[in-house]
Amino acid sequence: MADTSESLPQGNLVEGDGLTDRLRAVLRLRPRKPSYLFYRHPIPVRVLHWVNAICLLVMLMTGLQIFNAHPSLYWGKSADFDHPILSMTAQGTADNFHGVTQIGPWTFHTDGVFGASDTDGVKTVRGFPAWATIPSASPDLALGRLWHFAFAWLIVINGLAYFAYVFWSGRFTRELLPTKADIADIPHEIVTHAKLQFPKGEAARHYNALQKISYFVVVFVLGPLIVLTGLTMSPTMDSAFHFLLWVFGGRQSARTIHFIVAFSFVGFFIIHMAALIASAPLNGLRSMITGWFAIEKDTKDA
Amino acid sequence: MPDGMLRRSFLGRGAAAVTTLALGGCTGIADAPWAINLLSEVENFTRRVQRLFAGSHALAPEFSKSDIAPVFRANGTLNPGTNDYAIHVSEGFKNWVIPVGGLVANPLRLSLADIRRFPARTQITRHDCVEGWSCIGQWTGAPLAHILALAKPKPEARYVVFYCADPMGSGDVDTQGNPIPPPFYYESLDLLEATHPQTILAYELNSQLLAVEHGAPIRLRAERQLGYKMAKYVQRIDLVDSFARIGGGRGGYWEDQGYAWYAGI
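YS: structure for the whole thing
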């Protein structure tokens, strides 16, 4: 498929009439250099991105509701109840308790957030707090499961549509697959990212090495991993595909990996947002909504 | 309209839509009846797809003796606590009789001695609780398929309903203040799951007669399903064409509280 981003003219100059420019004026920031708009994200990418964003949020929050039904993680085929890898529990008496989180040999006082927190103003024993779960009341395992398994279909179909699109359109090799030059560039990219210097001008037309690697890992490693570990928790799927248990080392290991991958997505989201805010928040957000990304004209181009 | 205006309204509407969906999911929509109906249809779809892969044949994984948990976790009802049940315990369940009736050509009345005389199956399987934990134990019992074959289900029979001896909760009072007895636990399987080779009426756990906390004297094992399907204290078995008029009409005690009837996931 032809990618319009390559064929569109570069002359679409933005001269101080955009939202970013007005904000810059209010915030007394230096005026932008002359820039042109570049069609960065074709519509399938934008639609799939936002459907995925909503699905991920629902999957995470319903997943935390499900986790709250037994807020402990184990390793292996079955649960070694006395030795969880992680647990969020309450200590104390029925009238006076506080939340604690245990990770391996360490125990943390996490009252009010993990282990015990307020539900509608009443202190409750619960793994994750009301603001983090769908539905917010806990326990509501039945509803949490109903939502989680329905949105699982949606996020998987959306993900497969994305795979189909990026491979069919050539976007995978053109924009996502790290090149040799990208790999060689990693040390330099780490330094510039640490200094919060982001690519400008022509370099901003393509994903940089760290972007490519993080998108690649999230989409092609973490995505399939969370789906497969999810299926491994299903007793009927284990009956159909015994190898799933072998791959993940048992149902409880699969549950733990599922949880770790879910929080890897949260970690990715935080970095994704930090990078957006630190680079060009409105320009980046606009490009994922309208498709258009403003690129500053390099002085050497002019 | 200037370019900037168009873009701004786009951003604003996009952000508003995302926020509405996210917050709506947390409060109003999550338990709205239309949403639950819609999601329940998805649940039916999930069942069909899982059955496509697992069919009637796929066996739940079986484990080795070294995998057996030192203490099998007991969950749900730990003792039915009724006078009738206490009498059965004191008699060693020698008068416990399970009628198999409903849509069958040959109704049965099975004593424990009858059930123990049937061909037995022993399996070391993983018990998966809907809460998320798992526990491995060795179960011995009579395949339900054998019992159903003796009872000869009629062509219109579609589900096997298990009525249990444990009352759930302390009951309620109606609007006139008359006490309503608590519902007894019950569960149901369709014939595909009921006749699966690993679906047994178990009377032993880890080579010991079932303890009260594990559902003595008879507990259902349906190894491709979650724990709540595996009714304890099984007292009566009925074949039906629909469970719409039983209990809350959703096919089981936990189903009536909103849990999925299909518990393969």
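YS: worth flagging: Residues 76 and 228 of chain B are 8 Å apart (CA to CA).
IM: good catch. Also The first helix of chain B runs from residue 3 to 26.
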